[in-house]
Amino acid sequence: MGPFVLVWRLAAHDLRRRLTQSVLLLVVIAAATSTLALAFALDGTSNTPWRTTRAATAGPDVMAEAYPAKHPALGELTALTRADGVVATSGPYPMASPILRTGKIADPVFAEGRDETMPAIDRPYLTAGTWVRPGGMVIERGFAGQLNVHVGSRVTLDDRPFRVAGIAVETERGANWRPQLVWVTRDDALRLVSPGGQLAYVLNLRLAGPVTAPAFAAAHSSPSLFIATWEQIRSSDEKELTVVQLVLLVGAWLLGMLAIAVSPSWWEEE
């Protein structure tokens, strides 16, 4: 009798004697295999969508914020436009900090004041609707999904009415950063600052070499400036996917342990 025939007969015998346990074992093994395959499939896939979005939006190599934008903070920010290694810029853009309300939801946001024409650097990619206009704001796509708003929805920013003119994706800020970001016109951003409030300003920089971004940030950071590199923004966007991958790997390991526990050979000796 060949070895394969013997193994098959033993397996068939075991299956007849312990049908329920064997079916359960098969289901657990299939679930563990599928979970493990999905976890490995996620490995490295986060880079491609982010690079595609960065290219479509002409994402900056460095993003700098002056907050609150008082002298000399604003002076430090504008001085970056003349720093060594900077080849192009967009901004500085005024940025208010209103409360966005829609229905029963109230959420603090950054409302960045933009021109009504797209810049050469950091131009959010519209997935629906149109760009900013007076009284019309654009909202980041993931945030729009969380709020369940769409083009045409009415919201308020510090009780000022706005209509959602468009929905966009961008790589100026990390997806997990708080507060979330919306875009309005420059004039609308200035109107959102209360008499006792203070504006922030944001500047986007393109460097001669993107790999120099960490050194540039280290050289120009100060207590009055927040500077983020494209690597930091990408890392923030990938963090959520990394957590999902870790959960899947742990789940696959636990399913594997369960498969061992329900194995018929552990329950009953021949």
Describe the structure.
This protein is α+β, with helices and mostly antiparallel strands and 270 residues long. It folds into two domains: 3-45 and 235-267; 60-233, no CATH class. It is built from nine helices and eleven strands. The protein has helices spanning 3-17, 19-42, 47-57, 73-79, 141-147, 186-191, 213-220, 230-261, 264-267, and strands spanning 62-66, 86-96, 99-102, 105-114, 125-129, 136-140, 154-157, 160-169, 180-185, 200-207, 225-229. Strands 3-4-9-6-8-7 form a six-stranded mixed barrel. A hairpin with a 2-residue loop joins strand 7 (154-157) and strand 8 (160-169). Helix 1 packs across helix 2 (19-42) and helix 2 runs antiparallel to helix 8 (230-261). The longest helix is centred in the last third of the chain and has 32 residues, at 230-261. The two termini are 21 Å apart. The model is unreliable at 38-47 and 241-245 (pLDDT under 50).
Summary, kept brief:
With 270 residues, the protein is α+β, with helices and mostly antiparallel strands. Helix content is 42%, strand content 27%. The radius of gyration is 27 Å and the shape is globular.
State the end-to-end distance. Answer: 21 Å
- The sequence of SSEs as H and E is HHHEHEEEEEHEEEHEHEHH
Report low-confidence residues grouped into runs of 5 or more: 38-47, 241-245
The main pleated sheet reads as: 6 strands, mixed, barrel
E-strand count: 11
* Secondary structure tally, helices: 9
Name the beta content range: 25-35%
The residue fraction in helices comes out at: 40-55%
Brief descriptors of the model:
single chain, 270 residues, alpha+beta, six-stranded mixed β-barrel, 9 helices
